[in-house]
């Protein structure tokens, strides 16, 4: 299928682009004609993803400011421009009651989910976008505006990302538009522990009758990044299958919250995503540390 929005000749950076939503975003951007620069921590998968998409890539954690500078340098060196930045990489750790959360792990969630998007936009702005214009899309979450069991660090950091989106939109216009997309439950590794134990049950509670696929979110990101959204900035686009409005059509409890309640922080050391970071990062990645783990 021909992508409806053309991004021919534009250049895009997508963080966390080797699987899940970020991978779908990078794929859709490339299909729309954009040159893509992908990032994630696993160097071999970054290399493969860049090759698959005919783009470039650099491995590292978004928590590392040097990595973010390297990403912008690479995109500029290879493409000569940076039109689109998609802040997608995130951590959903530390998991558990906030009273038990290690404040250093809490800080890491904010480093990855809030500080990194700001730093990357700063780098792209100073290197190219501030002069030439562009579009930023932050991947937030449907849960950013309300509370949920055991995901306090994730939720508050994503709420901060939502606020950052609006703040940047106000500061960077008219040249740069800044928007966010807020997914509901999507079939990715990060959320596997929620959807896999009984997908039908979760789907049945949603007005649109199914959980999300990464492509559902990717299409929204590409649309916001394209000229079709040229008069939109500071917006948050919910892509949640009707999660936010489900209570009008169901009398059952919210299955996603039931799953979160049932998932013990100590299970699998509270890892809500499947793949551990590369071995050399395990020592310092506080996102993987949970009290008592
Ligand atoms: N899935 C859902 O239901 C859902 C719902 C709402 C919002 N979201 C949001 O959607 C975004 C993507 O999530 P996803 O579900 O697609 O996750 P995912 O399947 O776990 O993929 C995460 C991607 O980010 C990379 N990554 C993780 N930590 C990183 C770091 N510190 N630095 C650089 N790259 C990193 C991963 O590769 P490496 O491990 O190799 O680094 C991978 O490419 C996140 O912002 C998440 O909060 C997801």
From TrEMBL:
Residue numbers spanned by region Disordered: 260-293
One Pfam family in the UniProt entry: adh_short_C2
Name of the protein in question: SDR family oxidoreductase
Comp. bias (Basic and acidic residues): 260-286
Recorded family membership: Belongs to the short-chain dehydrogenases/reductases (SDR) family.
Superkingdom of the source species: Bacteria
Stored CDD domains: SDR_c
Transmembrane segments: none
């Amino acid at each position: 299928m021909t992508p409806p929005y053309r991004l021919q000749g534009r250049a895009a950076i997508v963080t966390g682009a080797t699987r899940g939503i970020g991978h779908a975003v990078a794929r859709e951007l490339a299909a729309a004609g954009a040159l893509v620069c992908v990032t994630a921590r696993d160097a071999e998968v970054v290399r493969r993803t860049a090759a698959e998409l005919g783009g470039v890539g650099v491995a590292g954690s978004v928590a590392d400011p040097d990595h973010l500078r390297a990403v912008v340098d690479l995109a500029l060196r290879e493409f000569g421009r940076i039109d689109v930045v998609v802040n997608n990489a995130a951590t959903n750790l530390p998991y558990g009651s906030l009273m038990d959360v290690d404040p250093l792990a809490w800080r890491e969630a904010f480093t990855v989910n809030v500080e990194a998007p700001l730093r990357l936009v700063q780098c792209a702005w100073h290197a190219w976008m501030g002069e030439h214009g562009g579009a930023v899309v932050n991947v937030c979450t449907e849960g950013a505006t309300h509370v949920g069991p055991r995901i306090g660090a994730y939720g508050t950091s994503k709420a901060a990302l939502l606020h950052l989106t609006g703040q940047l939109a106000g500061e960077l216009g008219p040249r740069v538009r800044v928007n966010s997309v807020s997914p509901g439950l999507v079939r990715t590794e990060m959320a596997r522990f929620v959807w896999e134990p009984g997908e039908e049950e979760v789907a049945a509670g949603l007005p649109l009758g199914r959980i999300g696929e990464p492509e559902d979110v990717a299409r929204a990101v590409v649309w916001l990044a394209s000229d079709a959204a040229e008069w939109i900035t500071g917006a948050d686009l919910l892509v949640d299958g009707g999660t936010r409005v489900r209570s009008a059509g169901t009398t059952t409890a919210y299955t996603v919250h039931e799953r979160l309640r049932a998932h013990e922080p100590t299970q699998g050391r509270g890892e809500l995503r499947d793949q551990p970071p590369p071995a050399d990062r395990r020592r310092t990645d506080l996102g993987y540390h949970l009290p008592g783990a």
